[in-house]
Amino acid sequence: MTVTEDKATAAGSGRNATASFARKQRTTEPADHARVSAIATDALAALHEVIRRHQVTYTEYDALKAWLIDVGETGEWPLFLDVFIEHVVEEVANADRQGAVGTIEGPYYIPDAPEFPSEATVPMRGDEKGTPLLFQGTVTDLDGAPIENALVELWHADDAGFYSQFAPGIPEWNLRAQIRTGTDGRYTFHTIQPAPYQIPTDGACGRLIAAAGWHPWRPAHLHLKVSAAGKAPITTQLYFAGGEYVEDDVAQAVKPELILHPTATASGNEVTYAFPLDPA
Ligand code: DHB
Ligand code: FE
């Protein structure tokens, strides 16, 4: 008898994303009451204005309550926030950068992935599906001088759009790795090209997307964090020119500077990308 693998579900990836967020280091600073009041007052006023503009009914208000409760109960808050809100937080946070362009982190980052020297074959299954991708480049300062010992963290979905540690049946560190650049600032990853990612359609976020008639897709992407001593760390994603949903990302996280143009080689695709880091 074969053992049937659990299917990926919204509740499953939601639960895992919520548990992962709970492990993240967060501020323990006391609240700045004036700032909390200013932001909360304006956020509520924005909602009040929407209710008046659209003449929201009690039926709709109750549907909203039920939906919000459901998002929480299924652990989908990280998914919802990172798809629909994070891109503006990132825009504000990185507005003053001169160098490498950032975008959203999303809910599926895990720190402390397996570490390699400057060239790594990313951990993957023996029969990992997907076009092989040679992804390489340099980490530099804003003047283009190479940075040695920069940390380049890479994580991405597999050829079916699933992330290890969030969807069932995938080895723990599959398609997750971090490498240190050498004296020339270079990094080289051997991996596979991910597939587009679909927001789970069977949960509360999926129900909102379906009810609104939107589509639930993000374009295929590589996630990266790049950091080095004395530099401002960057969190970003890279996309593939001409790929599905690049022009129409449900999370609105694509920027022109983040689109890769890989070339085909005998053994797959190859692309080079540079990360000039701003000073800290
Ligand atoms: C979500 C998933 C992603 O892979 C990503 O990059 C951003 C957001 C999400 O499901 O919320
Ligand atoms: Fe992602």
From TrEMBL:
Family per record: Belongs to the intradiol ring-cleavage dioxygenase family.
- In its UniProt entry, what is this protein called? Catechol 1,2-dioxygenase
* Encoding gene per record: catA
Matching entries from InterPro entries are given as: 1_2-CTD_multi_dom, Catechol_dOase_N, Cchol_dOase_actb, Intradiol_dOase_C, Intradiol_dOase_core, Intradiol_RC_Dioxygenase
Q: Which keywords has UniProt assigned to this entry?
A: Dioxygenase, Iron, Metal-binding, Oxidoreductase
Q: Which PANTHER family match?
A: DIOXYGENASE, PUTATIVE (AFU_ORTHOLOGUE AFUA_2G02910)-RELATED, INTRADIOL RING-CLEAVAGE DIOXYGENASES DOMAIN-CONTAINING PROTEIN-RELATED
Q: Quick check: keyword Metal-binding in the entry?
A: yes
**Domain Intradiol ring-cleavage dioxygenases: start-end pairs:** 135-163
Species for this entry: Acrocarpospora pleiomorpha
